Amino acid sequence: MASANISEGFLCSICLDVFKEPVSTPCGHNYCRACISRYWSSGDIIQCPLCKETFRTAPKLRVNVEFRDMLEISKRTKQAAGEDGGSPAGPGDVPCDLCQGNRRRKAVKSCLVCSASYCDAHLKPHRTVQKLKWHQLINPVDSLEERVCRKHNKVMESFCKRDQCCVCSVCLKEDHVGHDVVSLEEEFKARKTMLQRANTSMANAMNDKCNTVIRVYNLMAQSRQKLEETKVEVIQTFDGLVAAILRKRAKLMEVLEEKQGAAEQRDKALQRQLRLELAELRETSLKMEEVLKTEDEFRLLQNLPSIPSATHTRHRYSERQSLLQVEEVLRAVVKIEKTLNEHMDKIIREVLQRDTEEEAFEEQQTLFDDELGKIQEQHAVKVTLDPNTAHPSLIVSEDATQVWDGFFKRNISDNPKRFDSLHLVLGNEGFSSGKIYYEVSLKGLTVWEVGVGRESINRKGTVNSSLTPENGFWTLGLYWGRCQANSNPPVHLPSIKKLQKVGVFVDLEEGVVSFYNVDMRAQIYSFTGCVFGGASFLSKILVFGARTRIYPLFRPSPEEGSAPLRITNVRIQCCSQVTNSRVQVTLKSPLSESKSESPRESRSRVRVQDSSTPSLSQRQK
């Protein structure tokens, strides 16, 4: 008691805990070195927290030796008296039930017999007293009351695998006789192992997805870089083509100018010659006019001017033809344009086809990456109906894949397997291990039930009409527009529009029955923790003996004129089928359109050009 009082006197007034490295201020008060230093650094004024004495500067702190020695003596005294039961209980820790006051210590064990938790100090009697050694100790838990059976007020120390619940010793003798029962510790280890495996699998899946994200990011960067390089090369190629065309155009203009210049030089020389001859003719014409004016015959005969010959005055000159036929140039350019367009259209189609193939491949990868796609690919089985189990009012088709309700009981031979009360029929094939998946077409049905049932379900006389897991049924049903999972109590599901095909997946090892909307590729509902044959399927590490077989179960619509319930084959699209179909559809459109379009319209649809700029062929027309 004295040591406890001493401990209470060794409390820092700042942290309210036992002194750690106690120091004294000039005013005589004691604090932890870290506490007083932090207090002074957080404010603008340096003062004592208790007496409020102010200091100009932070005083030099020295360890209070006497306090330190007294604290060590107190600790040693508490250890010798067995008072030090461990560290104080913090947030999230389980406190000791025997510790008093506000400073309760952290519990290290909980006793299922005493229904209490103890720290190290208060746990010593359970370790030393012979009568207490048989008490069952577990890791500290906060609510021991939950471990007590409410019916018998006994500690639940066992776990029933069949009913999936914790039980006490009295429950084992009354309600769980003959059940598969193990200790809580054993079941805890099994479930923990299962969770660890699931967590490892999830971590691996997360790691794979992270790696995929990084890989996709790198591929995007590489694809973008390749695209930029390709664009640069294509631009350079077209720039080179344009430059070559411009060079040819400049060369043609140069040749035309040279030819035109030479022709103009010849024309100018001809003009000079004609002007000289014209001047000479004018001079002769004037002389002749003067001679014609005279009346003297002798003078006319003496001065008669020479008359120029016809060859001298006539020049062969005709209109010169054009140096270049523009139509020939246009035809050549149009031909080049057509050839270029054909090649470019072919290149564009190849690019689009390659892109379509990649999209189809990615779509198929997505198809097989989803949960239902993997189940369809790996676990699909062939299921047919067993007419020997069908209720007398049910009619099974010859191929044993369809069933409908005939409304009236037929006079048929009795069979130990036949239902005579429930309008149900089972599948021919039974399963006791592994995973199975089958699909049922429900088109045109307003009432139906599908799922699986135990081989041992009661089929004769008055039976429990509730198709629940407790009675050996795991089914999904539709009852006049309302879909529900037949559990106890039933689970009403949101209305599912156009639910025409349901997939049923059963994992016999894990105890899971799942139903899928095949058209929407979405899960509708799952039964988990199912006990198919009296054994637990929570972990694959358990070894099973002989187990009850599970059979597919069906109930068609009882309405007159209703469509039959049909078992359909599981259709799995292969990657090549998806790819080929997508490519065929993509390539069919341009080819079919080209038959109805003119070549110019087809080229203008594929080619990227400014609609405001007419093509050469259009200009020619």
Query: Given the helix and strand composition, which structural class is it?
Result: alpha+beta
Using the alpha-carbon principal axes, give the shape. Answer: flat
CA-CA gap between termini = 117 Å
Q: Tally the helices: what do you get?
A: 13
Mean pLDDT: 78
Q: What are the defining features of this structure?
A:
41% helix, disordered C terminus, disordered N terminus, alpha+beta, 6-stranded antiparallel sheet
Characterize the structure shown.
The chain is an alpha+beta fold and 621 residues long. The protein has helices at residues 2-9, 33-42, 65-80, 120-128, 169-174, 184-293, 297-302, 310-313, 326-369, 371-379, 575-596, 599-606, 616-620, and strands spanning 22-24, 30-32, 46-47, 54-55, 62-63, 109-111, 116-118, 137-138, 158-160, 165-167, 181-183, 394-396, 402-405, 425-426, 435-441, 447-454, 473-479, 482-485, 491-492, 501-507, 512-517, 522-527, 550-555, 565-568. A hairpin with a 5-residue loop joins strand 18 (482-485) and strand 19. Helix 9 (326-369) runs antiparallel to helix 11.
Task: Set out the fold topology.
Blueprint: H1 2-9, E1 22-24, E2 30-32, H2 33-42, E3 46-47, E4 54-55, E5 62-63, H3 65-80, E6 109-111, E7 116-118, H4 120-128, E8 137-138, E9 158-160, E10 165-167, H5 169-174, E11 181-183, H6 184-293, H7 297-302, H8 310-313, H9 326-369, H10 371-379, E12 394-396, E13 402-405, E14 425-426, E15 435-441, E16 447-454, E17 473-479, E18 482-485, E19 491-492, E20 501-507, E21 512-517, E22 522-527, E23 550-555, E24 565-568, H11 575-596, H12 599-606, H13 616-620
